[in-house]
Amino acid sequence: MQDARHFLKVILGLIKQGSQDVKVRELAIAITRTAPDDREKARRIFEYVKKQIAYTRDPVKLEDMQTARRTLTLRAGDCDDFTVLIGSLLESIGIPSAAHLVRTKPAGEFNHIYPAAKIRGAEISLDVAAPRPVFDKLTFRTFKAMRAER
Least packed by Cβ within 10 Å: which of 13, 20, 70, 75? Predict the structure, then answer.
């Protein structure tokens, strides 16, 4: 459990770093410029990442956590990289985010992480790494979860 807490702390630190990156903010503004509200801004960020960033596993026997800028440069990443990128894009334009670390199998370790936008007291899941990603809907069952926010 301590490793999971440390993992979430690192993710939140990368989100903070990314949210302060001018290139990340420029992209978030470009993606959401005409969106009428924060929910639509979150949806547009979700759609952008889903279409523009390829899901790619980490190198063998290496947990590689990328900055938001690196994920944008590579145009590829895994679930933790998507969480950092989406959280950074959201927070760079003033929308708070959270990270959910989950176990999707009945036993074993945490094996997935996804971001959420916090809008008007509700959380909207933005899991583009799910097998069938759907805005504001989880498409898999979770057996155990940890949540963190800055």
Answer: 75
Q: Using alpha carbons, list the distances in angstroms from residue 104 to 39, 53, 55, 100, 147.
A: 27, 23, 18, 12, 15
C-alpha–C-alpha distance, residues 83 and 77, integer Å: 10
In terms of CATH architecture, what is 2-149? Roll (3.10)
Over residues 70-111, the pLDDT tens digits come to 999 999 999 999 999 999 999 999 999 999 999 988 888 899
* Chain length of the chain: 150
The structural domains of the chain, with segments of one domain joined by +, span 2-149
Backbone region of residue 20 per phi and psi (left: phi > 0; alpha: psi in -120 to 50; beta: other values): alpha
